[in-house]
Amino acid sequence: MTQPTDIRRVPAALTLAGHGVPVLPLRAGKGPFGNCRTCAKNTCGGRPNMRVPGPCVCPAPCHAWAAATTDLSVITSPAWAPAWQQAVAVAYHPGGAGATVVDLDDADAITWARATLPATRTVATTRGEHWIYHGVMQSVNAVRPGVDIKSLMSYARWLGPGTGTTAPLPAVVRALAVKTPPPARKATQAHTVPIAGQSGACPHRTPTYLDRGIAMAVQRITDADRAVHATVYRAFLAVLSRHGRCGCLTEGHVTRLFTAAQAKGESARHCVDAWTNARTALGL
Asked: N or C: which end of the chain has fewer CB within 10 A?
């Protein structure tokens, strides 16, 4: 009977794990092994509501990226042997290794990357290239044609060490994950109309007062390391409590707040919901 340590995918996995890269087996079709009943609906590992990656605690590999591990005893355990026997490749969790992969699917995407992104370590793929940076961020698919971002709560196929020197994760890559929220226009327009009984004249001393308030709210959101949903809501509530009735908020101000929230992983829908809830709480 084949032993786990004899399976051909295991040596590569052990080498990666020994360098601190969390690994997992991939089955045919480049897919991870599916959730077991214990892991159904993400009940173990990951804590998605807190957006904090965490390991899967099941004996056999499942739960996609959360199954990735650097524990050599787990990788070579009998529980993982069936998965390695079926595996067609080794995958890894970039975010768990402190990295971000810009996945370029075609020649046009590669051309764009060479003209736009800082040079870094590159790995050839079947259809394109992986550009690997040092640093983590949220994972987002289809940030532009042929381009996906894989980092936290995601996995990438291991295709070798590649060439070049790994560069720090640049702001231009982080910015790809921030999409301008179309619903923000409606939310902002609601605040440019004075509340009934108000003159609409701004009572604040200078426009600098508003700009400083927006900057403080953006910084508060940016600095959040936990409870991001609650932090975003409180920041929106603080801004609206000061400036929601005088008509001085503009679309540009709201866009700055939404952009900061989305950079922390909030979706456009969550931003709109938080803004609407804050307005409701203040009676706006």
From this structure: N
Distance CA 11, CA 18 (A): 10
Q: Please give the torsion angle defined by the CA atoms of residues 100, 110, 126 and 85, in that order, rounded to the nearest 10 degrees.
A: 0
Res 267: pLDDT: 79
Query: DSSP class of residue 119?
Result: P
State both tokens at 31. 């897919």
Q: CA-CA distance, 112 to 278, in Å (whole number)?
A: 40
The DSSP annotation for 24-82 comes to: EEE-TTSPBPPP-TTTGGG-SSS-GGGT------SSS--SGGGG-B--HHHHTSTTTHH
> pTM score > 0.70 for this model?
no
Task: Specify the pLDDT at position 196.
Answer: 29
What's the whole-number average pLDDT of the chain? 79
List of the chain residues with pLDDT < 50: 1-6, 46-53, 181-200
Question: Rg of the Cα trace of the chain?
Answer: 23
Please state, in angstroms and rounded to a whole number, the distance separating the CA atoms of residues 154 and 249. 37
Six-digit token pair at 195?
Answer: 């509340």
